[in-house]
């Protein structure tokens, strides 16, 4: 598995040890209403062949993080801070053109809604071939076409040579997402970011897409970041899990740790709100009370404190002091003021029996 | 596609038929008797009756309309002569097909008036059209890409100004100051394209500019709005994620989608303009369809008005049809049939 950061953040400009290393990433958007701190000090690492799941509610900064890694905020009004190291190259301070050349070749992205992510006026095949030729300028049109058809076949689209000439609206939802995956993988990227790749799909297709991504990962050995609010997807595919809340990391660890030994009250809430059909329906679903915080005025102290049942246990510390990410056991870190003993007791007595 | 065309062309024919019927009916209801216009000073009721008979104004409306319609494919003759005395029944005026009527006023078949005027109007329309599409779209894209900048605000202010100024004002200003008063530019007169393409363009340029200033504003604003909307679409993000250059993202992926709605209004505007740029033609004294229309209207020359109305309607309807066909080529979601 990839190494999880030790206490806090590594010293800046130290040589990266992992394939992808994000250090203290900040993405802030100035707006008329104030500064939106979409991502505010996020760190994680990822090795080739590994999968990191980033989970959290809408507006927790998951997609913004992904787009920052891809350099899609360059040239916008967003303020970026921190460092992103990909294969030994720093991206936050790199030139827009340098990052553009990596985009689509070394790192690629799959988006949430494949219908709106495909251009309505261009053939699906042509859109994929365009990405291939962009990074392989010497390739002829017919070679790009062959490569595209090969990719369409790889992702399981039947009659790929015929479907090449179809438009996005002529594909079914699952086929569209397969085409998006083919588009992302056409240049053999070593980092694949999937932003809610299954959210717009129905459940049977979701499973197929997840299986496809797993197969392709074992074939190409790429690193995958999967962004989702669907814990089932994360359990299925992720090696590591990063739980985001209010633009920061709430909990970070291996999938086993986060699913079986979750430490953060927010992670408890997420796990508790999963629908379980294999249990007796003795009670209603247990949503996390309240709504995600506004990223313009993030609550002081712990961003989760207004929604946290256990905040009062610490007096007013949760309202005044922001918890740092601390390692519980090697490879498992949490940002919470509750003591280890408190968390262990609460999880054992109150949370585990209901999961 | 074949069936679509047959259906649409039939529709066009029916629509033109209805328009011609309504127009003919309307002109028939106008409280002015063309016969009195020909009667001269010493007008007597007998003389009027005689002229009415010659002009077939005594016939029932449907007969008159039927004859008018019949003449379009087959031509007809008009049994009256140059003289308003209209006694010499040997004089026969031939109006060959396609006969759109006979101008009582100018004593000539309407078709000839129109075929003389149309090349002028077409020259004016096509040049202005190219100018305002290219200008409007370019300025719109620049504004969208520099949204909120000083340049954007200046351009939007200027286009709003251009849109607000009526063409009789811009037309008169362009003619009066740079051309007549300051003599920077020769006074335009129509030179046929076949005679000298350069002089053709040179003489038409002031008219093109006047019309383009008025129309470009709308295209600028629509392009700008569409472009801003398109650049926020998910597929633009996809294009960027593929690592395409920003230029390719904007001009291939962005503009392609943003321009689709432009086709609709562009087709209709061009169709409308082919019916005659009345004010501009009048100001620059170009004898296009617009000028012919104005003259006919001030002279109660109903057959000419009638024909011009039908022609204008024809261009708008055909432009509409072409837009529909183009749409199927532009937007893969649209399928004819």
Structural class of chain B: mainly alpha
Q: N-to-C SSE series of chain A? A: EEEHEEHEHHHHHEHEHEEHHHEEH
Cα gyration radius of chain B (Å): 25 Å
Could you give the distance between the termini of chain B? Answer: 6 Å
Portion in helices of chain A: 25-40%
| Tally of DSSP helical segments of chain A | 13
What overall geometry of chain B do the principal axes of the alpha carbons give?
globular
- The residue fraction in helices of chain B comes out at over 70%
Number of strands of chain A: 12
Description:
The complex is a heterodimer of chains A (355) and B (337). Chain A is globular. Residues 1-11 of chain A have low confidence and may be disordered. In chain A, helix 4 packs across helix 5, helix 5 (141-154) crosses helix 7 and helix 7 packs parallel to helix 8. In chain A, a hairpin with a 2-residue loop joins strand 11 (326-329) and strand 12 (332-334). With 355 residues, chain A is an alpha/beta fold. In chain A, strands 6-7-8-3-9-10-12-11 form an 8-stranded mixed β-sheet, with helices on both faces. Helices cover 33% and strands 21% of the residues of chain A. Chain A contains 13 helices and 12 strands. Chain B has helices at 2-29, 34-39, 45-54, 61-74, 110-145, 150-164, 167-181, 197-230, 234-241, 246-258, 260-274, 278-283, 289-298, 302-330; strands at 76-78, 93-95, 102-103, 108-109. In chain B, the strands form 2 sheets. In chain B, strands 1-2 form a two-stranded antiparallel ribbon. Chain B has a two-stranded antiparallel ribbon with strand order 3-4. Chain B is mostly helical. Chain B is globular, with a radius of gyration of 25 Å. Helices cover 71% and strands 3% of the residues of chain B. In chain B, helix 1 runs antiparallel to helix 14. The interface between A and B is medium-sized, with 30 and 21 residues.
